[in-house]
Every structure is written in structure tokens, then in C-alpha cells.
């Protein structure tokens, strides 16, 4: 008897009337059916045959992906986050809440820290840490200045932005941001580990899920920060594993890269990997290679291998590691206990169970999200995907901690793949925002700090988290900062001025979706216009077109994938048809064969082929039309802005 999944699949595919015909066979037999077997189950109509063919393919793919036979879909745990894609993000775009908790608002949130504050055993769900890298000799030589102050004690970062007034006098605008931790250029990688991933390692041994991200512009120190973390974490993991109670646990390492909307295995010659959804709507990376390691040297070797594969690929045209997210995953697996009677003959030993999992993510350069109007289409598409993934990531992290019922995992490849790091009570996230100290990078630095700031601004239990953590309060400090800025209007005025900037940013956010990246020249233009008290028409129409362009990019990214998947499925269908043609030819060559049968079968097969080509052609044409529209729109926006 086929399982409920197959029965439902038959129903959904419009093949309900054939359910009794498959009652006598197992799922395995069902999935192994060839097209030539279909008539023996009563499926003779061409269209029905195709439907059945596709159904079998999709169930096989999903069950292969999940590494198990199709089973009943899992019942959602009552407390699990629910993913309702049609409402994705609705709950999160509540600008009112976001505004209220901004660091410059008048929130009086600083309640005394609760006793559990520093509980190492239960690290906070989200930690946001900023790390400033040192200025290099070269940067100094070319006249760059260090414009970032890190106030370690108050976990605050201050960016001193030099500005020019209308009368051309210069002044410094100070921007202060408070985080869980602010790390200056003196802080070692070991200290970074202790403040970020270190406390999470223990949780991995009791079903923990963790992820650690490095965010920032290219050259801000993401890779420098991220690459030692897995090595250091593995040392701690092996220490735990040496204990008697963890003897049956092993560490499995995998590593992949998300480039555009494709995924590549960094431990298997950058093989392209497919992403599929299994029967439980869980996204799985199919065929990702995993290595079991038993010492730190093993982990180091894998990291070296992956960074080698990453850089080898980047010599090719249009390929650049700053445009990809690289992800290293550790899975702690417990081998299933062997039953006293051992295994029965022919029975597979049970799969090891994943106890804990941690992902280390070196994100694409945040400035790459602004490439959506580049001259090169590939660059534009990659930029759009990066933009999308960084926004989706922020929304997912925010959702983690705000009782959100809708988590927008499906917003991007990145978040879809990392979904299991975000779901459940045991999920922990650390975001490390890397910043450059240079005066020439000030726009990017501010963008990074604003991003990191929004990641944590929805936290509802600020008070009983890390002491001095993210509570916006601290009026005295902001007042001092405002007074320190010379020359300029009165402190109050300045504060108000800054408020207005944020207000405007938020308005734009609400209008066009959350923080669309703004390329520096464009932002400059906007500033000038608003300083003069008017936003020109050109800006307005460009914004409308840019919005249409954003939508188009989204749909192109999605349709590209659909087109390729459709093509692949068609090809499999073609191969099956071809096999049948060959069988038919063999048949007809035999003495005494019936020519009528041959003609009839041949006609049916040609019909299948013709229909297939037509469908593929139609999809291709629709896609080409989208590409043309995007090209034209991109040029128009470019012209308006120029
Ligand atoms: P990203 O990965 O963000 O593009 P990198 O990690 O490659 O940036 O860092 C850029 C440069 O700055 C590298 O030469 C790196 O060695 C150096 N660097 C980054 N952070 C630090 C730091 N905290 N201390 C010393 N050098 C650093
Ligand atoms: Mg890097």
C-alpha cells in the first residue's frame, strides 16, 4: 500500500481516480515505475502519464533530499516558529515599534539587570557585537584618518563624520551606537571568540542551534574575524567530546558558498548543489559533502581546502569572493545505540542523530547590495540577490526575539538554507558587525552600524539581558556627544537634526521596503536636495522606476531558477521518451510485428515531444521578455540619475 504522501500527491496531481490502482504496491515500487509500466495500472492517457511522471520525480527528489522514505509530514511543535510565506515580514515591518526603540529615542529602559544576566549556561538569543579593525599604514599614507572611537566600557561606537555646511565651513557630526559589545582594534581573535561563539559551544551538546555571522563592507575584517572561529570552537568541542558522557558524539564538517542564487560545495570542487524542499517543507542542500573530523588539525585542513576552492574560483571572470556568502557548518552527531540483538540482515544501521549544529557565516560584502544598477547584468542580479539576502537575514534575526509568528526564511537562499538555525527555543545567533576606521569609508560604516542596530532593536527583554547591553537610554552620553561637536547649532538642534535623518530614512524604508541599499553618490545627491529643502521630481520618478526595477529583479531571480528546473525535468522526460522510442524500434524490427501498434505509439510519443518543446519555448520567451524589460529599465534609471 502506498503511503499517505503518495496518495495526497495523486490527489493533488488530479490523478485521484488511479489511487485504487496503486493500492497493492509499496512506495518503493511506486517510485520505481517506468513510463512503460503505467498502462498496467490503467494510466494510458498522455496527459495522465505526464502528470504521473512528474509526481514520481518530485516525490523521489524530496525523499532523496531528506534521506528517508516519504513519511507523514511532521506536526509543527506548538512553540515552533511558523513560516507563512504569504505574510512574510508583515509582522516585522511595524515601523512604529522600530522607531520607539531606536538608540536616540527617549526610552527609559534601563531597569537593573536581573540575577540571571550573566548566565553562561543560557546565552542570550541574539548578541550583536561590533569590531573595528586597525587603520593600515597604506591607508594612513594616502591621507585616510581614523574617524571611529570605540568606548569599550559603555559598549558604544562613535563615528565622527566630517560635513560641510552651506557656507562651506566644516563641522563634525557624531553618530553614537550602543551594542552588546564594542571591540576596538586592540582586541585579539581569542577575545572575540570568548565574547561571541565561546559561550555557545556548550549549548551545542544539549540540542543547541547556533549561527555566527560576520557582516560588513569588503575589507572591513569579516574574513579575518570569522576564519579563526571554527578552529577555536572545534578545540572546545573536542574537549567536551573527550568526556565520557559525550563519547558517542562525532563532529561533522561541511562548507559551502552561496553565489547569486546558487549553492556550491567548497569541499567538493565547488560542485553546484541543488536546494530542495522535502515533504516537511524543510529546505535541504542535496549532496553536500560532510567530513567527520577528530582533531583540530582536521578542521584546519578543511578550512584551508575551502578557502583554496573559494579563491581558485574567483580568478574566473565575474567571480569574486566578496560577492558570495561562505558558510561552514559543524554538526554534532550521536550514533544511534545498537539494539542488543544487533541489526537484522539487510537492514541499514540507523542514521546518526544530529545533537547540535553551528554555522559560521562570512557574508558577502554589504556594499555589494548596491550594485543593482551596474552596467553588467550579472553584477546587477548578484547585487539584487545579496541585497535581498541581507535584508531577509535581518528580518529573520529580528523575528527570533520578538515573538514573531512569521519568519521570512523564504526571503532568500541564505535564510532558507539556514532555516534550522533560526527555529526553536534553542536557537542562538551572534552577529559581528565589522567596520573600517577610515574616513573614506564613513558611509559604509554608518550603514553597517545601522543594520546591526536594527537587528537588535526589537528586543523586548533588554533589561534582563547582558548588563549595559543594548538599552538605548544613556541620555547623558548623547548630550555629551552633542556638546562635543564643534562648530554647529545648539546641542538640542543637532540632536533634532539627527532625528530627522533617521525619520527620513525610515520613511524611505517604509516606502520602498526596509533599507534598500543606497549607493554613495545617490545618497549624496539626495542629501543635497533635501538640504536645499526640496526633493526634485527627478528623484521621485527615479524612485518609482527603481521600485519597479526591484520587483523585476526579484521575479527574474525566481524565474531563472524555475526555468532551469523545468528544463531539467523536461530533459529527464525526453530521455524516458527516447528509451521508449528505442524499444519501439526494436519491436518493429522483429518478424511479425504489428505496424498499427507502432504507428499509434509513435504518434503518442511525438505528441509528448512536441508539447514539451512548446512548453519550454513559452517559458523561455517569457523569461527573455523580462530580461529585456529589466535591461531597458536599468538604463533609464541610470540616465535619470546621471
Ligand atoms: P573582508 O573579509 O571583510 O573583506 P578582511 O578580513 O579580508 O576583510 O580584512 C581586510 C584586511 O584587513 C586584511 O588584510 C586583514 O588582514 C586586515 N584586518 C582585518 N581586521 C583586522 C584586525 N582586527 N587586526 C589586524 N588586521 C586586520
Ligand atoms: Mg572576506
TrEMBL record:
<keyword id="KW-0175">Coiled coil</keyword>
<keyword id="KW-0067">ATP-binding</keyword>
<keyword id="KW-0206">Cytoskeleton</keyword>
<feature type="coiled-coil region">
    <location>
        <begin position="568"/>
        <end position="633"/>
    </location>
</feature>
<feature type="binding site">
    <location>
        <begin position="216"/>
        <end position="223"/>
    </location>
    <ligand>
        <name>ATP</name>
    </ligand>
</feature>
<dbReference type="InterPro" id="IPR027640">
    <property type="entry name" value="Kinesin-like_fam"/>
</dbReference>
<feature type="compositionally biased region" description="Basic and acidic residues">
    <location>
        <begin position="491"/>
        <end position="515"/>
    </location>
</feature>
<comment type="similarity">
    <text>Belongs to the TRAFAC class myosin-kinesin ATPase superfamily. Kinesin family.</text>
</comment>
<dbReference type="Pfam" id="PF00225">
    <property type="entry name" value="Kinesin"/>
</dbReference>
<dbReference type="InterPro" id="IPR001752">
    <property type="entry name" value="Kinesin_motor_dom"/>
</dbReference>
<dbReference type="InterPro" id="IPR019821">
    <property type="entry name" value="Kinesin_motor_CS"/>
</dbReference>
<feature type="region of interest" description="Disordered">
    <location>
        <begin position="483"/>
        <end position="541"/>
    </location>
</feature>
<dbReference type="InterPro" id="IPR036961">
    <property type="entry name" value="Kinesin_motor_dom_sf"/>
</dbReference>
<feature type="domain" description="Kinesin motor">
    <location>
        <begin position="125"/>
        <end position="458"/>
    </location>
</feature>
<protein>
    <recommendedName>
        <fullName>Kinesin-like protein</fullName>
    </recommendedName>
</protein>
<keyword id="KW-0493">Microtubule</keyword>
<keyword id="KW-0505">Motor protein</keyword>
<keyword id="KW-0963">Cytoplasm</keyword>
<dbReference type="InterPro" id="IPR027417">
    <property type="entry name" value="P-loop_NTPase"/>
</dbReference>
<feature type="region of interest" description="Disordered">
    <location>
        <begin position="106"/>
        <end position="125"/>
    </location>
</feature>
<keyword id="KW-0547">Nucleotide-binding</keyword>
